[in-house]
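Q: Here's a chain of 430 amino acids. Please give me its 3D structure as tokens.
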Amino acid sequence: MRVLVIGSGGREHALTWRIAQDSKVEKIFVAPGNGGTQEMERVENIPIGVTEAEKIAVFAKEHDVDLVVVPQDDALAAGVVDEVHKKGILVFGATRAAAQIESSKAYAKRIMRFRSVPTADSAVFDDLGQAIAMVRACKMPIVIKADGLALGKGVKICQTVEEAERTLYNFMSRRIHGSAGEIVLVEEYLEGPEVSIHAFCDGKSFSLWPSARDHKPALDGDEGMNTGGMGTIAPVPGFTDSMMQKVGENIVSPVLQELAFGGAPFVGCLYPGLKITRRRPKVLEFNSRPGDPETQSYMRLLKTSLVDIMLACAQGKLDQFPIEWERDLSAVCIVAASGGYPGSYQKGFPITGIKEAEKFNGVKVFHAGTKWEDGVLKTSGGRVLGVTAVWPTLRGALDMAYLAMDRIAFHRKQFRKDIGRKSLALPFGE
């Protein structure tokens, strides 16, 4: 088989690494890829941007690609899956219509309300004055969200009316997230720990992954700006099989049914982010692809061939295909980022210590913002590396990942030192 993976982050490196373990895969193309995928055998980086839908489809056809994997939000919103479908090639990923569940938070809210999926109360605004009038009448804290895609940074928890007004101005007037902030949601703040849920989907049926927890704020203690994710654990202590079953029945299933009924059957990975409130789990938002740091943890736990799973999804045969995960291991991912991320940061600094880090038991390092330049591996993005580890206990996996992290060096490296700490203390970190 020949496989094409779209993206350049840690998620795409992890997926490529897992796909490469399948003996029937002879060649993997990654567009555009990163320094980590460039090092792999049987893997070739292709200089095509993730939103260049027609170029991707033409390349796949001309190079006899059997399966295209589209795990990147901008690519899905740009209609990459739709263009590849036109060439008659199998695709793991959501169409542009189905991907609206992520690319428009207002659209997702309408679907959830229609199907009685538990979620936070919210109001949608395209007028700055009306949005400001709303927040002045709200009890703090509240949450303000950009409607569109904003690299995981378009959500702000506001503690005061002044902060909420400033956020609305930044989103809607200054357009700090571009067109993503033309429309905003003003949403009630939900108390409780967060859990990431992922599901393989073939348009009509689904299979749930283990639970996971992402750590979005940039700094220890959940301080600082929101990022695309600074680290993950999987599974989440205390999140039971019974709870997972209820999420499948009350959240994933009705949304899949509604998308199919509306003519946009969802194929790929559906990812609802949840808050576990005192009453029941509620949806914070839906993603139409796997989370980036979550995927790096998950690929360390998956036992079944990833290629076979993706083919089953693309062919509508997922209900005939059992999927196995490691049940006796915990997986973690600690992100090493450029100093200043998610704000402004410098890049182009040499990276050392990855081989030494991977000498620790159970450790694998995935690349995100890296590139090779004159034979030297250098930083090229905000999130640079994901240090993953697996161990029979969560504490052991975290210890190994942090020991490995200490071996890696680049100028102004930053990382959170408390990934998983709350989960070690009490289920859901309460």
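Q: Can you summarize the key feature?
A: The chain has three domains: 2-95, 127-182, 194-429.
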